[in-house]
């Protein structure tokens, strides 16, 4: 069933409530990385160009006490958004009550307003009540009452059922008001959804990161769909242990060795593991390193894939028509152990006629660092959400969008 999209709606003169994902790093009142704000611009600009009033809601960080609130205000985001749009953005330092209602009532068509961090509602008068993150229906109903249309464009929280996404959507539908996906959410549905449900073959999944436990569901779901699943990162060594290969001091989830054995048995030659590793005598960028084939020596830990593994993975990838990559190949934050991740990003940028989709913080950082982001088909904006989507789970933030008639 196809979903209602923002460009299906008549927005002129409408109060358009928009859930965006402005959960960005802020230090000393300055936005550090504006990628998520930039990703929301097409939907915001569509609303203002089509005569709607854009009323934006977003969370920022986690609020566990009143002390958390000052450092997690969205005010710096409003300033950055204003710069990016090249027009004023009204920031309202609350997200409930007369001040917000009056500011919305005073809006003219084509104007933009950003309400304060929705997670301020998780702590009221010093008490942790989680109205936003536990989807308090009365809060969703209140926010829904402020607008004529709701657009969910926050893929980063699509795997969460919050008052500001599912709560608003539920109340809007009940009131007979439309709930649409923004362009960013539409893009995620299109690329991630198609990659998993209707991929062009050969379909290769590259899964990295530290823990097998984070990726079990994804591996299991993709085993029936992918032609090959390349495994990298720390979770490699739980698979090594499952195969009886020496792991030295490398990261191993002992309680997941049996799960890894099951995956290897079920996957057979679909599972591609590294054949060599960059090993270190300690977890440090200053460590003494050596490249080791196969078993990791005692006293050493594997912190990246080695050159033979890079070559092997490139051979597997070279004819791919669909590639989904989530998770680094090594300890990417240390330059000494970043080459495996960077090499994969570099190679993906050279693939022709392939749909290449990257998700997860480190993989995304790698392709941006290399300057190959624009050579890839899609960079997902949601870490946890993209993983759950790859697992085949229904995401509440997508399910709550109205279907087209």
UniProtKB/TrEMBL annotation:
Catalysed reaction equations from the record: (2R)-3-phosphoglycerate + ATP = (2R)-3-phospho-glyceroyl phosphate + ADP
Pfam families attached to this UniProt entry: PGK
Pathway: Carbohydrate degradation; glycolysis; pyruvate from D-glyceraldehyde 3-phosphate: step 2/5
Residue sites binding ATP per the record: 215, 333, 360-363
Protein family: Belongs to the phosphoglycerate kinase family.
EC numbers: 2.7.2.3
GO MF terms, alphabetically ordered: kinase activity
Subunit structure: Monomer.
Location of this chain's protein in the cell: Cytoplasm
Top class in the EC scheme: transferase
PANTHER family the UniProt entry points to: PHOSPHOGLYCERATE KINASE, PHOSPHOGLYCERATE KINASE 1, CHLOROPLASTIC-RELATED
Keyword Cytoplasm part of the UniProt annotation: yes
Keywords associated with the record: ATP-binding, Cytoplasm, Glycolysis, Kinase, Nucleotide-binding, Transferase
Presence of keyword Phosphoprotein: no
Gene3D superfamilies in the cross-refs: Phosphoglycerate kinase, N-terminal domain
CDD domains the UniProt entry points to: Phosphoglycerate_kinase
Domain of life: Bacteria
Main location: cytoplasm
HAMAP family given in the database record: Phosphoglyc_kinase (MF_00145)
Binding sites annotated in the UniProt record for substrate: 21-23, 36, 59-62, 119, 160
Protein name: Phosphoglycerate kinase
